[in-house]
Amino acid sequence: MSVNKIVLAYSGGLDTSVILKWLIEEYDCPVIAYCADIGQEEDWQAVIDKGMATGAEKVIISDLKEVFVEEYIFPAFRANAIYEGSYLLGTSLARPLIAKEQVRIAQSEGADAVSHGATGKGNDQVRFELGYIGLDPNLKIIAPWRVWDLDSRTKLVEFAKDHDIPIPVTKKKPYSCDENLLHISFEGGILEDPWKEADEEMFKFTVSPERAPDKPTYVELDFQGGNPVAIDGEKMSPFKLFSRLNNLGGQNGIGRLDMVENRYVGMKSRGVYETPGGTVLRTAHRDLETITLDREVMKIRDRLIPIYADMIYNGFWFSPERELLQTTMDEAQKTVNGTVRLKLYKGSCIPVGRKSDQSLYQESFATFEQDDVYDQGDATGFIRLNALRLRLRKLQDS
């Protein structure tokens, strides 16, 4: 394949550092190293210096933190997206945004190819490439892990040493991790044994529940149209608000997950995740819906959540079906306005109060005390009508 210029999704880690040098040698053309700042803790100047030292034509850092929260995290959480009942899609939501900015840079820089560091065994190759194709099908796609002979971490390390590329992976950190504002994930290495408990020293976003404060933290979260807008009455930008939720959740040991999931490519994979702010947000959002969503609307919406989550996990963010479902999910959120009070304590996030001007909960109807708005005798006919098919079935059997 002949290419003139490549934009590489670059992190500065072992894989993409080796890929950067390999692309330069293999295709003999300029390579732009592009990094997406989506809230990960990073020394960006060191990333730029390393990229340039490795041979990049330039290193571009794109600040996408606010966009990530407002246009990717919030839409997914309006839909209560969760994969296989546990995973809050931290990596899955980041990839389409990274791909979109990568395509934009390629178009603005006159590049005719894009490249990524995802392996041929994982989900990310699918997410990146469906994004590239969905946004600009004319771009050529280079996936080194599927074509080169550096098919193991050992060979990558040897290549890096031969080319004087610093190696960030050590025996003290024998796993891979991916960090953004929504979560940090850990997989591979010592975690490939699903029976082995993750080392406490590995966790970064959260304290262990055992070491969390002995006194609970109470927090109030305000929503408008299904989006969080304020914490304890203080309005904040999406990024600032979510960062605050991460801090609150992390300090109280909330948001850890250890699961074996089904990858889109067919295999099972063990992953350990920390998603403190996302866990707090989803808990509060679902609780507010209990008083603001119509029962039948909630039933239909909840049936769609696994379908919507699968679309995101499998890389179909830029697809007509995801956009269709997003419109449906957002329509249901028009009445999700109000406040939820949460109790955060040693790994648990418990709703303890909720209120809304559009609440469908009416104490006068729900009370066990005497009332004049509900005739309990009406329940007799209601039960008989609902039991009619059961009566007929039993009569037929007798």
Structural description of this entry:
- The chain has 398 residues and is an alpha/beta fold.
- It folds into two domains: 6-65 and 91-170, HUPs (Rossmann fold, 3-Layer(aba) Sandwich); 178-353, Alpha-Beta Complex (Argininosuccinate synthetase, chain A, domain 2).
- Helices cover 42% and strands 19% of the residues.
- It is built from twelve helices and 14 strands.
- Strands 3-2-1-4-5 form a five-stranded parallel beta sheet, with helices on both faces. A five-stranded antiparallel beta sheet has the order 10-9-8-13-14.
- Helix 5 (124-135) links the parallel strand 4 and strand 5 (140-142).
- Helix 3 packs across helix 4 (90-109), helix 7 crosses helix 8 (276-292) and helix 9 (295-313) packs antiparallel against helix 10.
- The protein is elongated.
